[in-house]
Design brief:
It is a single chain. The protein has 323 residues and is α/β, with parallel strands linked by helices. It has 2 domains: 156 residues, Rossmann fold, CATH 3.40.50.2300; 152 residues, Response regulator (Rossmann fold, 3-Layer(aba) Sandwich), CATH 3.40.50.2300. It contains 11 helices and 12 strands. Strands 2-1-3-4-5-11 form a 6-stranded parallel β-sheet, with helices on both faces. Helix 9 links the parallel strand 8 and strand 9. It starts with a helix and ends in an 8-residue tail after the last helix. It is a lipid-anchor.
Amino acid sequence: MKALAWLLLCAVLLGGCGVQTQTADGKRVKIGIMLSDVGLGDQSFSDAAFLGLSKARDELNIQFDYREISETGDYEKGLVELVKQDNDLVVGLGFMVQESLEKVAKMYPEQAFVLIDSVSDVPNVVSLTFKEEEGSFLIGALAGLKTKSNKLGFIGGMDAPVIHKFGAGFKQGVQTVNPQAQIVEQIAGDFGSAEKGASIAAAMIQSGVDVLYPAAGLTGVGALKEAEKQGKLAFGVDSDQFFVAEKAVVSSMMKHIDMAIYLIAETLVKDGKLSAKQMELGLQEDGVGLAEVRVAALSDKEKERLASLKQDIISGKIRVNKK
């Protein structure tokens, strides 16, 4: 299944996969990336993107550089610096980069850009988004099967469409397997505060929540650790966050940002450009999915239920809410 999913993803981006270590003119491909607001060490979004570029460097012989807002002070400055380095492609990671990236893209119309997690109409910007709602549906179904109090909590980092996709899919998944369950939601207003995440999680647990699903970057890490501290279950996002809180994290909603960025690099190496204007990756393309299930054992019946729900989403029998 993994091999088939990889071929499907290749078809979305390339129309076929192939690898060479340099472009037609003999130059190494250069990619610059403006990381999301927390930057490296978020144990989530930025770290996964960096992993994908590191893999492309090692296996495809590309060059890459990156900027963090903690160094540049704002997204625009970092993006301009990357453009001036003559990168073949400049990537903006996360919806919060969009306004600055579009401004810089209009300033440099000959430069190719990729915006991850939002959609842009600017001609020289390729948009790459994920169907977070599909993976979150499966997390919700798993959470709905494992809750004992029938009260679950969702913590979002910011009030933004991509975060609402996480929440909507989670709620639908919970209610599909456990209609009696109640979902408590809170927007933290911050992706970078582990302390705030822990505080929100503690309040939810005090109210009776026994399963937490934070989509909130480093703020979510704080929530995961608080769940572990209080002996509750939790689910990670973007990358496998089991090692953040090994006694609490049952699974994680994987956004294969590393794989997608690697494939973008491979496209540039092979073709010298990106042909698609917009790409959206879900369960069918293996753009999202579940990490290994740990901590809470699944019965054979529960495993079959999750597998069936996944296939129903892929086939279109289940349409997952985005908001």
